[in-house]
Amino acid sequence: MGWESFLKAVLYNIDIFAGPVVTLLYPLYSSIRVIESPSRLDDQQWLTYWVLYSFMTLFELSFSRVLEWLPFWPYVKLIATCWLVLPVFKGAAYVYENFVRQMLLNPNAMATNSVERFVHQYGPDALDRAMKSACGDITLSSIFLHQSDRESISAG
To answer: What's this model's pTM, rounded to 2 decimal places?
Structure first.
């Protein structure tokens, strides 16, 4: 009964035992190895991991009252952290390449995509009408054209 109870307790509290190892010890060890390596290719994985870990910690601190009511949160966090950390998945590098890097290189991409979807769905006239109702006589052409271009268009 002793080993059985011990094993049951370990499995029941796996997030408590594995959490610090997965979220801190292994990334710390790997980050030190990366710092000492001459290659810069592996830096991205661990720098991105620490940024995402910081965001996850801030999220937890901000929403701790809500997360207390979710009994599955520690397990979700453990699984997400394993995905970010384990070299098989390279989740942190994936998040950087597919989300963070795109927003850094093109910060207006989300707004541009939204406007393009709106124009595709409702047409360019609908966008001008929406702008006119929100901003008065301002239209897209008046936003994007320089003053001299507007004068040459109105004169010609």
So the answer is: 0.60
